[in-house]
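#struct-help
A.M.: can someone run this one for me? Single chain, 325 residues.
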Amino acid sequence: MNRRNLLLTTAAASFMALTAPLAAHAEDAPIRLVVPYAPGGPLDATSRILAERVRDSLGIVVIDNKAGAGGNIGADIVAKAAHDGLTIGLAATATHAVNPWLFSKMPYNADKDFAGITQMVRVPNVLVINAAHADKLNIHSVDDLIKYAKNHPAKLNYGSGGNGSAGHLAGEMFKQRAGVYALHIPYRGANPAQLALLAGEVDFNFDNLAAAAPNIKAGKLKALAVTSLEESPMLPGVPPLSKTFKGFSIDTWWGLVAPAGTPKAVIDKLNKAFTDALKSPETKTKFATMMAEPVPTTPEQFDQFMATERAKYQKLVKASGAKVD
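D.P.: on it. Structure tokens below:
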């Protein structure tokens, strides 16, 4: 083989290596979307809605639930997958902002092992108190709660879905900003924590709006504030905590990521398909039933958002003292 043919062969091989992921995508091979949580929850449900919406543009998207270790098992599968765009995953507050500081050993690097595709959803958390308890203690606003806590030191407690959960960290942030004390009581999941609140075992919770909404509407829980920067259209009339404490913001969010190194052309194709789906009226209507707000972004915006969230939760987790070995 002469030098000219050798150079041509080498160039062709390099071109094929670079374009192989794009070719695989062009053949409409099924895309595996790893959801690092069990079936049935809002993260799973919204993923399945989007999988159906992108069928025409991306082909078949198969939802693969890989729960365990606070979401780390599923996230690690995505981190170590081939960067061809055929395995993508769900990135959530826990897996990409809280767990890196909560777990002493992490199987993946949340900062370096993923490429953002788009944020999917934002769901505010809500500060709720047992309605009957609120009437008994005359607590009908955030100011009332703070006043009661200061006038009755060490009398209040609050529940959460576990150490390091969004509800736990929101509670710690509230205590710091308000200058009050309330004992944290962790439960094994958000549902047991809400049941404890309904039963009067704890005084207040920071719960996911999607989970708390039915009991708020039924009058069993009283919503004092939402944890988003602005008032939530999902719960009109309930003020944001940022009105009392500037910059207070702890939302539950999730989005889509691919393994780091996935070609930009593949990321862009995935981004267009999923953001188009997120913008559709049908998606907005279905998400609204789960109190979830679609948040389509560019890949760069989602990467920056996750980095900002990691920095925020690093401080919160350290202040809370929560740790998982």
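A.M.: thanks! The chain has a mean pLDDT of 90.
D.P.: also worth noting: The two ends are 59 Å apart (CA to CA).
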